[in-house]
């Protein structure tokens, strides 16, 4: 099946309230164009420079989708990232949030951000520890900033876990999401729970995801 057909089938299978962010790292410009022309609304990318080049090569088609940074953000790439991405999904410290805020202020932007949760507590991975106090503290700090707006939580889950471990990580993140929403933090617009990739998007939706990030299932193996 073509990329376009695969995307459309996936879109028809996934509930309407769940946003599909097509993860496009390592994909070519024609592949990205095909999925945009098939109706993709959101593209995720892990790398600032590659996404910038892809956007330039895509021309007007690039402007028809929202761009999400789903990889780790280095401080020295923030300025560029704000020109390339509409949403930053990987905020995991107040330092990063403040650095984004400072640069967004100069650009006259209010940037939607998600807090990344290290739900599998893997030392090699980025994200905030999945403990309510830590997440609340960061969320409060982010909400105090004028040029970023907290809109959701994002998680990867365990990279090599079985379905039970993956679900446990998603369930924990969903729980943090609900606790955080109950606080009704002023300035927050918490409506997005971003979790699930090719191998885990079905479980993620069952565990409460409102956004999934499949790549391989749309484009084929990397
Ligand atoms: C690569 C990646 C994805 C997509 O993974 P697939 O297994 O190709 O579906 C989703 N989210 C993040 C953060 C990624 O790095």
Beta-strand fraction estimate: 15-25%
Strand order of the largest sheet: 7-6-5-4-3-2-1-8
Report the total helices.
Answer: 9
What is the second-level CATH architecture? Alpha-Beta Barrel
Helix content percent band: 40-55%
CATH homology superfamily: Alanine racemase
Please write the CATH class name. Alpha Beta
> Which cofactors or ions or other ligands sit in this model?
pyridoxal-5'-phosphate
Kindly report the average pLDDT value: 97
Instruction: Write the element-wise H/E pattern from the N-terminal end onward.
Output: HEHEHEHEHEHEHEHEH
The biggest beta sheet reads: 8 strands, parallel
Enter the CATH topology name: TIM Barrel
Number of strands: 8
Query: Unreliable runs, pLDDT <50, ≥5 residues?
Result: none
Structure notes:
- The protein has one domain: Alpha-Beta Barrel (TIM Barrel).
- Helix content is 43%, strand content 18%.
- The protein has nine helices and eight strands.
- It has an eight-stranded parallel β-sheet with strand order 7-6-5-4-3-2-1-8.
- It is globular and about 45 Å long.
- 42% of the residues are buried.
- The structure holds pyridoxal-5'-phosphate.
- The site of pyridoxal-5'-phosphate has 12 residues, from loops.
In short:
By secondary structure, the protein is α/β, with parallel strands linked by helices. It has one domain: Alanine racemase (TIM Barrel), CATH 3.20.20.10.
Helix-strand layout with pairing:
Elements: H1 3-13, E1 19-23, H2 29-37, E2 42-45, H3 48-58, E3 66-69, H4 78-84, E4 87-91, H5 94-107, E5 111-117, H6 132-143, E6 148-155, H7 163-183, E7 192-195, H8 201-206, E8 211-212, H9 216-219
Parallel strand pairs: 1-2, 1-8, 2-3, 3-4, 4-5, 5-6, 6-7
Helix pairs in contact: 3-4
This protein binds pyridoxal-5'-phosphate (PLP).
Pyridoxal-5'-phosphate (PLP) binds next to loops.
């Amino acid at each position: 099946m073509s990329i376009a057909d695969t995307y459309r089938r996936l879109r028809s299978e996934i509930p309407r309230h769940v946003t599909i962010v097509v993860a496009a790292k390592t994909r070519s410009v024609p592949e990205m164009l095909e999925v945009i022309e098939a109706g993709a609304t959101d593209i995720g990318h892990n790398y600032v420079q590659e996404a910038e080049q892809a956007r330039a090569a895509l021309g007007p088609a690039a402007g028809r989708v929202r761009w999400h940074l789903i990889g780790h953000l280095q401080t020295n790439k923030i300025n560029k990232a704000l020109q390339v991405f509409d949403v930053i999904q990987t905020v995991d410290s107040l330092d990063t949030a403040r650095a984004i805020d400072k640069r967004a202020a100069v650009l006259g932007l209010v940037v939607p951000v998600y807090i990344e949760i290290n739900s599998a507590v893997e030392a090699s991975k980025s994200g905030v520890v999945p403990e309510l106090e830590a997440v609340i503290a960061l969320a409060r700090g982010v909400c105090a900033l004028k040029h970023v707006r907290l809109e959701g939580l994002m998680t990867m889950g365990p990279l090599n876990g079985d379905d039970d471990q993956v679900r446990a990580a998603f369930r924990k993140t969903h729980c943090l999401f609900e606790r955080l929403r109950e606080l009704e933090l002023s300035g927050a617009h918490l409506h997005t729970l971003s979790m699930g990739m090719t191998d885990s998007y079905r479980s993620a939706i069952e565990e409460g995801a409102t956004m999934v990030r499949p790549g391989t299932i749309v484009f084929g193996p990397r």
